[in-house]
Amino acid sequence: MLDIYFKECLYFSANRLGRIITKMAEDAFASSGVSPTAAFLLMALYERDGISQKELGQILHLQPSTVTRLIEKLAAKQLLYNRVDGRLSLIYATDKGKSLEAVLHQCWDALRERYRAILGDEEDGLSLHLYEVCNQLEQPNGGSTRFPAAP
């Protein structure tokens, strides 16, 4: 009976999936010297160097304190720096950080290939579906219109 509870529990299954894919991503990005989340932060900078810390948090779906810690770690490795512009903290990749771009893209490609080797071409559809599920669950009332939020 307990097995059924676990199989039917989105919380349990999502956390299990999170642990599995976190391990896979850590393995794939190990050669870069940065965590997968730090790699995605740097990849965001490659697209929009000089982005605000707030925008980085929104793009990466991370809390401000988590973004701050990531930035501090990457700044300590001299991969990025921040510049305060009024009330904004703008984040830029250093030359050293920019030099990792090709390596990070190779790691990203290797991770996607590993997913595809296991899941086949369904991986893209699954990723898109999970992204949409996250968007729905982040809506007020968890995307549900049937049950009001608890007082």
UniProtKB/TrEMBL annotation:
BP terms from Gene Ontology: response to stress
Protein name from the UniProt record: MarR family transcriptional regulator
Listed InterPro entries: HTH_MarR-typ, MarR/SlyA-like, WH-like_DNA-bd_sf, WH_DNA-bd_sf
Domain HTH marR-type intervals: 27-124
SUPFAM superfamilies: Winged helix' DNA-binding domain
Keyword vocabulary terms for this entry: DNA-binding
Molecular-function annotations in GO: DNA binding; DNA-binding transcription factor activity
One Pfam entry name: MarR_2
Origin superkingdom: Bacteria
Keyword DNA-binding among UniProt keywords: yes
